[in-house]
Design a protein that fits this description.
Blueprint lengths: L1 H25 L10 E6 L8 E2 L5 E2 L1 H12 L3 E6 L2 H10 L4 E2 L7 H4 L2 E3 L4 E9 L15 E5 L3 H13 L2 E5 L2 H9 L5 E5 H9 L5 E2 L4 E6 L2 E3 L4 H17 L1 H10 L9 H5 L1 H40 L5 H16 L2 H16 L5 H26 L3 H9 L4 H31 L11 H12 L2 H30 L2
Parallel strand pairs: 1-4, 1-5, 8-9, 8-10
Antiparallel strand pairs: 2-3, 6-13, 7-10, 7-11, 7-12
């Protein structure tokens, strides 16, 4: 009984130590400032309300309005590019203080959020390809339309789907939704009128064929019953901006300004032009991806070695713990695990978890489980007679494992470890769902500005392939070195 209690204590201590190390190593330092800073979530792929400009600064009606209100009311904001759904979940869990993302005020949402006064009124329109013959909703029967998840356009399309007999295809961002229509997979898409008008002005090959319908109002949102001071400041600041005319200037800046000023459309949208314009942004995303991979694989290796070794120790309990941990974390989808750690745990505990820490923890548990499995398998693949011979010579189990079994097992493990590093690198792309600015999230933000999905994803694919090719060569070299 004492032995079992001791092993439980060791197990819990190990997990706690890893989590503490993550927190200490990765937690951001707090700045000392008299002015209060609020964490605000947004989409940044929803022009003209929020997107990244050529200098990779988050701009748009929502962004400029929020900053102007913050200046008027003497507070600061830290913008978190989490995407619409990510912002909703992060606000609900208390990870961030509020969100502004072209969010329609609806009775259903009022049950979860407290909203500011409406700051913009908009309606939903239907857009089709330029050569399309579809001119009305009545012509959609039996066809497929595209919508963006969580938007007023999606709500409107779903509300009339049965009446007009069409199918709905859902996307996470506007550029993919537009692309689905221009490629012919969907015959139309539903989008907020100002957003659709801005996209067409920027070169998107679509045309609007219906008048705005289902008019609604956008509002700034906080978790219900919380951050009342922030909500009050937003409302007061909004009133002040409307009175002094600054509000209208912000709106006109994006809805009446001429597009592509300062350089030609071809220069901004050619493959080389996109690379030149976004080289620093892409490089930062690449560096963040590598850093995230390196830190994650470091902690995943510790996690995997501990639970892999537990699986080969002469203890049924420790073997059971190892098997259970490997089963759980290999069985959970990576996106589900990321959202559970980033939004699920804070909603239960009330403790905020930085996105980078949540991302590393996600990869540590998932990739660590795979490392544990091949560590366990590598050791078990060493002939059992090796251990029996060592024990028969009077060597204790620990020394036999350290001196004889592990050196042989490591040779088997190294190539698999390099392969796992490659897998971890690719898996970082899933963490864009919690707003980490790695390569995939960087690509989404660039595409929201120029709507050149194919060219941007081609550039990002090349960057991934270069580093993965180098790692594959390293893996093959390791395999050749371990051959006897």
């Amino acid at each position: 009984m004492k032995r079992r209690n001791l092993t439980i204590s060791v197990f819990l201590t190990t997990i706690c130590a890893l989590m503490i190390a993550l927190g200490v190593f990765l937690a951001p330092s707090r700045a000392n400032a008299d002015t209060k800073t609020y964490q605000i979530g947004t989409d940044v792929t929803f022009p003209p309300f929020e997107f990244a400009n050529n200098d990779n600064k988050y701009v748009g009606i929502d962004m400029d309005l929020l900053r102007a209100i913050a200046k008027n009311q003497d507070f600061k904001v830290n913008i978190k590019p989490l995407g619409f759904n990510g912002s909703v979940q992060a606000t609900q869990s208390g990870q961030i203080d509020g969100m502004i993302s072209g969010m329609n005020i609806t009775p259903e949402r009022k049950g979860t959020f407290d909203f500011s006064k409406p700051y913009y009124s908009s309606g939903v329109v239907m857009a089709v390809a330029p050569n399309s013959s579809i001119k009305s909703l009545n012509e959609l029967k039996g066809k497929t339309v595209a919508v963006k998840t969580g938007t007023a356009g999606a709500d409107y399309a779903n509300s009339i789907q049965k009446k007009y007999g069409f199918k709905v295809s859902t996307f996470d961002d506007s550029s993919n939704m537009y692309q689905d229509v221009t490629t012919g997979n969907s015959v139309a898409c539903f989008e907020d009128n100002p957003v659709m008008m801005y996209a067409i002005k920027q070169g998107t090959k679509l045309k609007i064929v219906t008048k705005p319908a289902n008019n609604g109002y956008y509002g700034f949102a906080v978790k219900k019953g919380q951050n009342k001071e922030l909500l009050h400041k937003f409302n007061v600041g909004l009133d002040n901006l409307k009175k002094n005319g600054e509000y209208q200037k912000i709106v006109d800046k994006y809805l009446k300004a001429k597009p592509n000023a300062g350089s030609s459309y071809a220069d901004n949208h050619s493959f080389i032009g996109i690379l030149k314009q976004n080289k620093s942004f892409l490089w930062n995303g690449f560096v963040q991806t590598l850093w995230l991979t390196i830190v994650s694989i470091f902690f995943a290796t510790i996690f995997g070695m501990i639970f892999g070794l537990m699986g080969v120790l002469p203890s049924k309990f420790l073997q059971g713990v190892s098997t259970t941990v490997i089963y759980i974390f290999r069985g959970l989808p990576l996106m589900v695990l990321a959202l559970f750690i980033y939004t699920g745990i804070p909603s239960l505990t009330g403790t905020k978890i930085p996105a980078f820490v949540a991302g590393v923890a996600t990869l540590m548990f998932n990739e660590g489980a795979y490392i544990a499995a091949f560590v366990k398998g590598g050791i078990q693949s060493v002939d059992k007679g090796q251990m029996e011979a060592a024990r028969s010579l009077g060597l204790p189990f620990g020394k036999s494992m350290r001196k004889i079994i592990l050196p042989q097992g490591v040779k088997i493990i190294i190539p698999s470890f390099v392969n796992q590093f490659i897998i971890t690198l690719k898996d970082t792309s899933i963490l864009s769902v919690i707003g980490i600015l790695e390569l995939t999230q960087t690509g989404k933000i660039i595409i929201a500005r120029n709507l050149e999905g194919f060219k941007v994803w081609t550039a990002i694919a090349i960057m991934y392939l270069v580093i993965i090719t180098l790692l594959t060569w390293l893996s093959n070299w390791g395999k050749r070195r371990t051959k006897i």
